[in-house]
Structure prediction request, 957 residues.
Amino acid sequence: MLEPVKTLGTRAERKRLLDVQGVKVAYGAIAALKGVSLSVGEGEVVALIGANGAGKTSTLRAVSGMLKPVGGSITLRGQDITGHKAHTLVPKGMAHAPEGRGIFPNLTVEENLKLGAFLRHDTDGIEADAEKSFTFFPVLKERRKQMAGTLSGGEQQMLAISRALMSRPQLLLLDEPSLGLAPQVTQTIFRILREVNAQGVSILLVEQNAHLALGLCHWAYVLETGEVVMNGTGAELLQSDDIRKAYLGE
Amino acid sequence: MYGFLQHVINGLAAGTIYALVALGYTMVYGVLKLINFAHGDVMMVGVYVGYAVAFLLGRDSLGSTGSVLLIFAASMAACALLGFLIERFAYRPLREKPRLTALITAIGISFALSYGFQLDAQVNVRGTQVTLLPGAAARAFPEIITPVEWLNIGDGEVVIWNRQVISFLIAIGLMVGLQYLVFRTRFGRAMRAVSFDHRVAALLGIPVDRVIAMTFMLGSSLAAAAGLLYAIKDTSVQPLMGLYVGLKAFVAAVIGGIGHVPGALVGALALGLCEEFVVGYTNSSWRDAVAFGFLIVVLLLRPEGLFGRVQAEKV
Amino acid sequence: MRSLGAVVAVLSLAFWGCEKKAAPAPAPTKAPEVAAAPAESDTILIGEVGSLTGSEAAFGISTKNGIALAVEEANAAGGVKGKKLEVRVYDDQSKPEEAANATTRLITQDKVKVVLGEVASSNSLAMAPIAQEKKVPMITPSSTNPKVTEVGDYIFRVCFIDPFQGFVMAKYARDELKFGKVAILKDVKSAYSVGLAEVFERKFTEMGGKIVATESYSKGDSDFRAQLTALKKQKAEGIYVPGYYNDVGIIARQAKELGVKAVMMGGDGWDSDKLFELGGAAVEGAFVSNHYSAEDPSPVVQNFITKYKAKFGSVPDSLAALGYDSAQVAIEAMKRAPDLSGPALRDAIAQTKDFQGVAGKISLDDKRNAVKPAVVLKVKDGKFAYVATVNP
Prediction:
């Protein structure tokens, strides 16, 4: 019944970090995900690409516990986390920078960062990680006492990523980090993401800009109306005619 | 002149009580964006708990510092529990529903408490009558703080009592404490995060349910403390006291800018003084009309209240 | 705010609806002796509506005891027209709408011959039009508002009316206490309080005294300091507070706290032991007008007190005395009436003249009001002490 998912290229052998099997999500009677399966290996950057409404954001939300799946299973390092509440997944090593950045505009930059480390009690470590964010994004240091609502879009995205990293996650879920940003800013952010990944953090990235996403990722899934229709290495997918036509506008 | 001074003292004393109730109102609103109409009635329950503890202690042991602390502790603990139960079983299931649903539930709880406490219910436990529900009649609230004249100008022309000073200092202290809690502590940061977007707060590992429950418990125990000071001031307790004071405290909180802690204090003191002058210099029938008129004028000139900030509605 | 108000209004309506469903017709509280009474056809039913719960419960219970005592005595003396009497009591929870419901039920369902009640004038005013329309006589033991008997020719009372209490206190304050300057603090939400204050002011001014200030409050307030501070400035010798005990107790306390030294004066609304609980030492030295005093040495009063004490174990207050008188007037009229139809009983009650009640000698005037003396009492050691009797 199901068409076999088309696979391009070979995936490097890695230890599984996240495993999503046949996950279904529905908003009322409308099915958003019709059985999505994907995995993220340790140290891997995985991209989810697809058109608007394909189910990219729903997939992230199901993984991070914002949405309760109606079917399927999700495991993190072999441990079942299907339907677990969002706040219980943070201590298990997951961080989710949600769609629209989700920063608290009425709190200062510093307070936003501290909230990212809500479950940590190692004051020195928190301080060190905040400093690390400031080396990634020096502009945040200048604005640390400012209300987060006064930041520009790019600065808010930097804050959202930095805040997510404050919990020292093994798996970082990112939803559209490039949305509405100038190309230069986007480049900065993707450079930092590469660096974050190089330090051992796995990333599950949802991105509208397929070009950017495929350039960064080790492996990518293509979503269409709530289903995975294709997967492969970034480089292979970039070469694929289907992808070029559908998502790269060529 | 003496009369004016006494009016100012009376007004500040009344405003202090409004302030204490309004602080809890504003705090719960700040986190949940829910107007907890049952807040005043939780306060009333706290007063009855204090009354019961004072009654059990007996007249002779009242007046000592230990007894006062015990009465406050028992009443605040009981209200924290009541607040927890109300939040857990009435508000939490409605959190994702439209705000109006929760508001109507709050009004329902308010009526259930204030009218439920008008019932008379007693049980006989091995020969002793134990009152479960107090009935409608007003009761004299015992003097748990021995009244002492703190200041007496011109042979009784202007009198300030110790409890007025104590209440005022407690109100200021609690305001400062709350302000510190909200803006300087980890829990306060979590409260503000939950207030803005509880879904995003959960993504950061903040236990949203627990933060909300704690906020309710804190607000309810504040209400208990306010209620006891109110009962000490006006020496009586009756089941409808919460409806009335709750409404006034709500007005005070809105005048100050709901969700804004120092605003609630300023709004409450302004309301207390305004009412006192209206009654003292015109006619008592004007009091509520002027109080609500004051509210309307403030809202017309500054829809966000005196200190409130305009906040973009979140999507 | 307006929509919020509407929500509250709708909810309170919904709540009333629920409450009526949740609390069905209060079970008739029958006097204990009724259990032994003979079958329905051999008894004459007397209806009673009273505040057995709610804010004025203390009033209703005393009245009920007084009525029960009078009926018990009448039954012991052979009843009326060879039949035993039975009282059917309904609780109105101190609410006018419940009082009206109870009256309808007594008349249409239980077919009582006469209705006794209520204490509070606002409740009696809700009952009177129903009794009048169904042509069943109603006697209120202690509603003193003039409007009650103005409803119609089936409505009577065995107490004096409000103006008379204001008259008595004004006269006493001017003649005996020699006050020149008096202030008034009245409950603007209560017809009773406003009525007493009005007559007091007229009489006191007429007698050469001066009303230096008039302040008001609303039933249920708990902070009266603004009014008292305003009154204090006027240096009055006395303050007339014709309110109910639950407010008066708190008023007295706050007056003392503010250093108000004027003597407080009031009416029968003060009459409850709760006054001393709420007011404590602050009500000491105050004067009130009332219907009767337990200290009145007359044999009628002392005899009544002995019997009441034996049955209920407490000293009867004036509401018990008036309840007793109302039942007695009804029973005497039943004996005199040719039959127990509404019009016949009405005429018999209207002819009551010089009937020796516990609370004074009762004659009903052409407005169906009792013309009788009042007593003045003074609060002394947490009790009302008899001071004087003032005749009309």
Observations:
- The first strand of chain A starts at residue 6 and ends at 8.
- Residues 108 and 145 of chain A are 6 Å apart (CA to CA).
- Chain A has one domain: 14-247.
- The two ends of chain A are 32 Å apart (CA to CA).
